[in-house]
Amino acid sequence: STKETDQGLRVLLIDDNEDVVESTALWFTMSGHQIAIARNGTQGVSTAQTFEPDVILLDIGLPDIDGYQVARKLRELPTTQGSLIIALSGYSLNKTLLREVTDFDHYLLKPPNFNQLRNLLAKYKRSNQSTEDLYS
């Protein structure tokens, strides 16, 4: 049914930049998604366990542990091992380094481009629809 596909996703935003958090959280909320916010990596990992997000936007440069370590932890948790993890970075990312880091599904430069985000989310939803949804 279309209701299934239009349902919002549970999105966890892990970032300590106030401007990015505000604008991104607002965009997700207006797009009909549920959003949880964590300001550092440790908080992000614990929030992920209770909130059980579908999608995680993860800043690389966090105040406590870096995004690479956070992503590794998230991949080890049963609640988030299958989540879509999108890295957010203020710097142009080193492509060779990225290829070695398998914990992220996508990389976006800050501030995130919302059209790009919308496409990633739509793709994620399509790939996760169970066969029941397709035939109902």
| Tertiary shape | globular
Q: What series of H and E elements makes up the topology?
A: HEHEHEHEHEHH
Strand elements, count: 5
From the alpha-carbon coordinates, what is the Rg to the nearest angstrom? Answer: 15 Å
Q: Specify the helix fraction band.
A: 40-55%
CATH superfamily: Response regulator
Reported CATH architecture: 3-Layer(aba) Sandwich
Structural overview:
The structure is a single chain. By secondary structure, this protein is an alpha/beta fold. The chain has a single domain (2-126), classed as Rossmann fold (3-Layer(aba) Sandwich), CATH 3.40.50. Helix content is 48%, strand content 18%. It contains seven helices and five strands; from the N terminus they run αβαβαβαβαβαα. Strands 2-1-3-4-5 form a five-stranded parallel sheet, with helices on both faces. Helix 5 (95-100) links the parallel strand 4 and strand 5. Helix 3 runs parallel beside helix 4 (67-76). The radius of gyration is 15 Å and the shape is globular. The relative contact order is 0.17. The model is unreliable at 1-5 (pLDDT under 50).
